[in-house]
Predict the 3D structure of the following.
Amino acid sequence: MFRIRPRRLRKNSSIISLTQENWVTAEDLIYPVFVQAGSENQAIKSMPNIYRFSLDNLLREIEESMEQGIRAIAMFPVVEEEFKTLSAEESYNPNSLNQKTIRAIKKRFPELVLISDIALDPYTSHGHDGLIEDGKILNDETVKVLALMALAQAEAGADIVAPSDMMDGRIGAIREALDANKFFDTKIMSYTAKYKSNLYAPFRDALGSLGSKKSCKENSDIPKDKSSYQMNYGNSREALRELELDIAEGADIVMVKPAGWYGDIIQTFKQNSTIPIAAYQVSGEYAMIYSAYQAGYIDLEPAIIESLTAIKRAGADLVLSYFSRHCLRITQKIK
Ligand code: PBG
């Protein structure tokens, strides 16, 4: 008969749990949140159950998240149209919504790890992550603004700054600016392999950063998409090149984004580096799972746990997910 039977370890739920290799826990989760200037929360059509919070409600949301065990949030501001310009000056304004929110959060929750996003898209009228001249995204000029932005956020109290723009050389330039201003302990979580994905659409809806499409129609000088800076999803070796550069330039944490369809890239990062790997389960991944549930096609809670466990299994040390709180409600109920 058969001597070796893998099914022995699948006999019941206790032995299955004892031999499970990867788990999603509160320690690994980073909860992305949106903040806006109004006093009422706003629903986001393409992201059911996710809100653009008013500052007061965001503080309450963070308090409840921390009670569940969440230690880190990634914050994204919804910038009002009147503050959007071609040169994105609002991005480094010390009194912007983003900087004010950082100060308010860190005052109330000093032990929370606050991750602040660095990219120009919420602040440019066209919604691109860079400055534009003659129809081209300007790399080095954009990086100068990103460094100013990092300083403004570090001054406001951000623990980690997270460049999500994909300009060349930005990690080194930001590290240099931070160090020159004695922010030696401000960490950089780099969006190292950020692919040009269709899965960011709900996020752009949340932020109102869809400008690029609109102004593109009106103005042929605006690039029609982000393909001159975000990575081609047909490539994996290129991600290694970005990884080598970001580590050499001083990144503390590197990220793969999106997460679910990019498990191979997460695994490659894990095998080729010694610093923590983050993976971002993005807005479109959230929307796909949630809308399949709403249509009655899949069960929500097991799908949430499966999707996040798969990202851990690929090799992610940290996972950014809009499902963070929902995930902990499920796992803490099981416990
Ligand atoms: C832009 C940015 C994007 C996301 C995070 N930062 C979208 C984009 O590149 O257009 C997407 C996050 C998500 O989809 O959840 N700097």
Observations:
- Residues 22-334 form a domain with the TIM Barrel fold (CATH 3.20.20.70).
- The chain has one domain: 22-334.
- The chain has a mean pLDDT of 96.
